[in-house]
Design a protein that fits this description.
By secondary structure, this protein is α+β, with helices and mostly antiparallel strands. The protein contains four helices and 15 strands. The strands form two sheets. The chain has an eight-stranded mixed sheet with strand order 2-3-4-1-5-8-7-6, with helices on one face. It has a seven-stranded mixed sheet with strand order 10-11-12-9-13-15-14. β2 and β3 form a beta hairpin. α2 runs antiparallel to α3. The longest helix has 12 residues. The two termini are 15 Å apart.
Length: 236
Amino acid sequence: MSLSEHPVGSVCWIDLGIVDVNAAAAFYGQLFGWAVATPDESGYRLASLHGHLVAALGPANDPGAPYWTVYLHTADIAASVDAVTAAGGTVVVPPARAADAGVSAAVRDPRGAPLSLWQPGTHSGTYASGQHGTLAGIQLHIDDLEDTRDFLRAALGWQVQPGGTITRQGRTVATWSPRPGTGRSPRPSPWLVSFCVADVAATSERALKLGATAPGLEPNVLVDPAGALFAITSKP
């Protein structure tokens, strides 16, 4: 994908931190048709579809249930990290170069929700083509609308719109909804990654046969065998 397809401030990459990377590679490979490469020195494994990078799987860094990490495209990662901290967030992993691919950083918002940043080098982002097994979009589950809205605006330039979308400079970058259920969300991440599929019902059935479960709180949301949530949709 070109940078124009992942403009500054939009989600450009996703990866899953998980204990059993081999099992995750088998599950998502069978479900989405991904080809998962052999691990690098850190255990990080790139997943591709038709020769295009779509995601990655790697050893979990955080305790508890695994979750899909979202990365936002930034043209200046140092400035983005400064904006996050000025807005009340914290730095978990300071900017670090991944060879020629780019520079990444991990941060948390004032409520502890994880988020990562990516300044592209040779790797511009995920192949979000609308094909089966590619990224469809990101939904943010919000516990406190006012606090989250203020942080996103100050740190990322995002505008939380009343209709359920999140925009930046007039372009939709994500959707949002109140966190399902009652009380503070027990999920390790408020971000829900959604993948395009050719047939929602058939893909859901196949996922269940491969060991996934359906929590039933939200339509088309599944939990992979290791406990990571993801959604499927027929609309890119």
